[in-house]
């Protein structure tokens, strides 16, 4: 696929740039223990990730994708989860192979990079700071930065407005249905990573890549 027209690239965070499941699972199980619940397998918690911390807490408490925990129980769990996770953001979280090189190459080509994640901004920003990725991004939008989050088009459209580009000139790189749906809704290019938390073959993206570093060659103008 020809990506020479792309003027900026947006990236999802969890499952795209970093593997944060070990720390998310540790926080979820610490919360469950705090609430008197038995631990869940990390793979089970992985299946609950993708719609932000608030949703993850509901799912980690109920162990169901579409159920909601009792209000007071959720509030206790949410407060504990955020406090625990904020203190252990990068204990076990790792940056995927090819990410640092890929971001560096894109920046060298003067392409603005945007982070668009459903993780709350107050957790996403310190996470990328601690991992040494913050300086790559011109703009960071968390799940609570705007009135809507992915799969809404709003974060992508907002990024385009800030950067002064058309939505069709933005590529959204992610690993989940939310990323592809947001790109479709905005009229942007949807790119999936093959190594993320979802099966890339089921996402219906315009293009699937095995490494962020692959984007450099795809976007060359020469």
Given as residue ranges, the uncertain stretches (5+ residues, pLDDT < 50) are none
The end-to-end distance, rounded to whole angstroms, is 15 Å
State the shape.
elongated
What Rg is obtained from the alpha carbons, in whole angstroms? 17 Å
Total domain units: 2
How many E strands?
8
Largest sheet: 6 strands, parallel
CATH H-tier superfamily of the largest domain: HAD superfamily/HAD-like
Summary tags:
222 residues, alpha/beta, Rossmann fold, DNA polymerase, domain 1, 2 domains, six-stranded parallel β-sheet, two-stranded antiparallel ribbon, 9 helices, 8 strands, elongated
Describe the SSE topology.
Blueprint: E1 8-11, E2 18-19, H1 21-34, H2 42-46, H3 53-62, H4 71-87, E3 94-95, H5 99-108, E4 113-116, H6 121-130, E5 139-141, H7 154-163, E6 170-174, H8 177-186, E7 189-193, E8 207-209, H9 214-218
Task: Give a description of the structure.
The protein is built from nine helices and eight strands. With about 220 residues, the chain is α/β, with parallel strands linked by helices. The protein folds into two domains: about 140 residues, 3-Layer(aba) Sandwich (Rossmann fold); about 70 residues, DNA polymerase, domain 1 (Orthogonal Bundle), CATH 1.10.150. A six-stranded parallel sheet has the order 5-4-1-6-7-8, with helices on both faces. Strands 2-3 form a two-stranded antiparallel sheet. Helix 6 links the parallel strand 4 and strand 5.
